[in-house]
Design goal:
- By secondary structure, this protein is mainly α.
- The chain has two domains: about 35 residues, no CATH class; about 80 residues, Arc Repressor Mutant, subunit A (Orthogonal Bundle).
- About 55% of the residues lie in helices and about 10% in strands.
- The protein has a two-stranded antiparallel ribbon with strand order 1-2.
- Strand 1 and strand 2 form a beta hairpin.
- It is elongated, with a radius of gyration of 18 Å.
- The two termini are about 30 Å apart.
Length: about 130
């Protein structure tokens, strides 16, 4: 028997699987994980949800995020319809990023992942 298989958490997983008819594999789930699970993408989405919209705000807010990677991730998120890029013809040109409705729907996902992380992840490594 696997550890925890008889405990309440294991029982809850079984109930959830029955309620949702959880399958072992789902192509749309896999695609979502590939999109959102890329390095820095989660933090970029979190920053957008927190109201950040300028390129400089992302690099100032997210430690270790390079301009090159931020640019790459923004292009990917825009191509997926998660982020929209708005260019204002001011001088100098101003570029703002906003979540689309599709991107805004990630709030519940981010909240759920944060709750899980706060319960189970120790950032100190101990």
């Amino acid at each position: 028997m696997f550890p925890g298989a008889g405990d309440s958490a294991g029982g809850r997983v079984e109930v959830m699987a029955q309620e949702q008819e959880l399958t072992a594999y789902c192509a749309t789930y896999q695609r979502a994980v590939e999109i959102i699970g890329r390095r820095w993408t989660g933090e970029i989405i979190r920053a957008l949800l927190a109201g950040k919209s300028r390129f400089s705000e992302f690099t100032a807010t997210i430690p270790g995020l390079s301009d090159r990677l931020l640019s790459e991730r923004m292009k990917e998120l825009e191509a997926e319809g998660i982020v929209s890029r708005c260019v204002s013809p001011d001088t100098p040109v101003r570029v703002d990023y906003r979540l689309t409705d599709k991107g805004g729907d990630l709030l519940e996902v981010v909240d759920a992942l944060e709750a899980w992380a706060n319960r189970w992840i120790n950032v100190d490594g101990g």
